[in-house]
Amino acid sequence: xxxxxxxxxxxxxxxxxxxxxxxxxxxxxxxxxxxxxxxxxxxxxxxxxxxxxxxxxxxxxxxxxxxxxxxxxxxxxxxxxxxxxxxxxxxxxxxxxxxxxxxxxxxxxxxxxxxxxxxxx
Length: 121
Description:
By secondary structure, the protein is an all-alpha fold.
């Protein structure tokens, strides 16, 4: 409040008159470096589990060997899909312009061959 009692005064416009939008920290994206690091760590963990599956399949002589082999075969596909599923583009809130409307097409009467009215022969 200014000394005269009116909001705004010499220090600037009142809070309601400000039009700038401030990004909230909860909606800010993670930095690219942090995102890539997180995906690489996740990929490393998944490939470590794959190596453990291979080693377990070699060591074990039980029906679970085949589960470990299946895990070792499927894990690379899942690891690559999850590693590549990184930074998604946010939805565009409508920054594209609407296409301009075209004027109506002109009349096409009088174009083309003349109609036959009689026999010229």
